TrEMBL record:
GO terms for molecular function: metal ion binding; oxidoreductase activity. The keyword Cytoplasm does not apply. One of its GO terms (biological process) is gibberellin metabolic process. Its cofactor is L-ascorbate. PANTHER family: 2-OXOGLUTARATE (2OG) AND FE(II)-DEPENDENT OXYGENASE SUPERFAMILY PROTEIN-RELATED. This is Gibberellin 20 oxidase 2. Keywords: Iron, Metal-binding, Oxidoreductase. Gene3D superfamilies: B-lactam Antibiotic, Isopenicillin N Synthase, Chain.
Length: 426
């Protein structure tokens, strides 16, 4: 990506680092031997070191279908060339349009992410998940909250548990929030010794935010609403960062690291670690792997953007598998709008759809809305407290809103809408 203040690979954080700085800052301050009162590192590993997986981790056969040998054919979009305009933007928009109208996933290069920063973030996650459980539990997730540490989401579910550990935290651009919220989170929850690690993720999140906004420019062009439409919509958003750890599993064919679902957020940027695959997308009845590409980020559409596109772009149905002898890590940045911002398709997009559909019986232009207006705060609350996200989350959410949503006591049991959900949300 070209040098541009709006597309900096590091954002405008005052934590900007050099290569040597990065290497130093991934060293975690608490070692197993130093954590008084905590469990040993071996005890944490033993949690997963069982000859058979416990029953709550066994997934229904319909969800744990065997993986296809056919790799998903995903376009690789050069977002840097797109930002320079001309043929680069035209080609990128065509690639994005084709992918998002079919399965909702593509990969991007030319994003400008510093490889040293990417490695620091991956290594920081590896180090965190190796810490004693007592240390990680300092950041344990509270019920109904999206941020914090959790193992297998046992704080939320009792069946079809994912074979994973996660650490999630929120991000707001410090230009609008007035503070470095990621650094503040690490120091307030884990302790002041974790400030360097928080600084790594502050920089990483700000880099991901800028890449996300550049991708939104491409998506806006692909939908015919212009470069600034969606970029402006998400500029002051409140995003979520998640570090994923998938331990080795004794029976990988009976469980999943992440069950079939669509992300409730708008856009997900995923950094996969190394050559070990795990992400899969359902296409034509097959779960096809998305192989890691050196230097590329995986991008997928979520439910919030499916609503913003009025259903023209599909939220990506995906899952993650685990491996018998090898662990796997990934970093997911979920782009979300500001909590109180109303999510509705831009008028220009609705007008084009109405023109294509003609007029109603009274001669008035049709406005074919597929989803009602909503705020990200309501959708996040729905997926955290009422519904285990799956392939039907947005439709269930629309019914919940129709029944009164957060303002109707009868609607607070919206989990009953769900037949059988098999997946955790962001």
């Amino acid at each position: 990506m070209p040098e541009d203040p709006h597309h900096s690979s590091r954002g405008s954080s005052d934590h900007t680092m050099g290569m040597d700085d990065v290497a130093r800052r991934v060293l975690l301050p608490v070692s197993p031997a130093d954590d008084a009162g905590g469990e040993s590192d071996a005890a944490v590993i033993d949690l997963w070191g069982q000859p058979k997986i416990p029953d709550p981790f066994v997934w229904p056969q319909a969800d744990a279908l065997a993986s296809s040998e056919r790799e998903l054919d995903t376009p690789v979009v050069d977002v840097g060339a797109a930002m320079r305009g001309g043929d680069g933007m035209r080609l990128a928009a065509e690639q994005v349009a084709a992918a998002c109208a079919s399965h909702g996933l593509f990969q991007v290069t030319g994003h400008g992410l510093d490889p040293a920063l990417a490695r620091a973030a991956l290594d920081g996650a590896a180090g965190f998940f190796r810490l004693p459980l007592a240390t990680k539990q300092r950041a344990r997730r509270a019920p109904g909250n999206v941020t914090g540490f959790t193992a297998a989401h046992i704080d939320r579910f009792t069946a079809s548990l994912p074979w994973k550990e996660t650490l999630s935290f929120g991000h707001r651009d410090h230009r609008t929030s007035g503070s470095h919220v990621v650094v503040d989170y690490f120091t307030s929850v884990l302790g002041s010794d974790f400030k360097p690690l928080g600084a790594v993720y502050q920089d990483y999140c700000e880099a991901m935010k800028q890449v996300s906004l550049a991708i939104m420019e491409v998506i806006g062009v692909s939908l015919g609403v212009g470069r600034s439409c969606y970029r402006d919509f998400f500029d002051d958003g409140c995003s979520i960062m998640r570090c994923n750890y998938y331990p080795p599993c004794p029976e990988p064919e009976r469980t999943l690291g992440t069950g079939p679902h669509c992300d409730p957020s708008a856009l997900t940027l995923l950094l996969q670690d190394g050559a070990l695959d795990g992400l899969q997308v359902l296409v034509d009845g097959e779960w096809r792997p998305v192989r890691p590409r050196p230097g590329a980020l995986v991008v997928n559409i979520g439910d919030t953007f499916m609503a913003l596109s009025n259903g023209r772009y599909r939220s990506c149905l995906h899952r993650a598998v685990v491996h018998r002898e090898r662990e796997r890590r990934s970093l997911a940045f979920f782009l979300c709008p500001r909590e109180d911002r109303v999510v509705r398709p831009p008028p220009r997009l609705l007008a084009a759809a109405a023109a294509a559909r003609g007029q109603d019986q009274e001669g008035q232009p049709q406005q074919p809305r597929r989803y009602p207006d909503f705020t990200w705060a309501d959708l996040a609350r729905f997926t955290q407290r009422h519904y285990r996200a799956d392939a039907r989350t947005l439709d269930a959410f629309a019914r919940w809103l129709g029944a009164g949503g957060p303002n109707c006591a009868a609607a607070t049991s919206a989990s009953q809408i769900q037949d059988k959900a098999h997946q955790e949300t962001v």
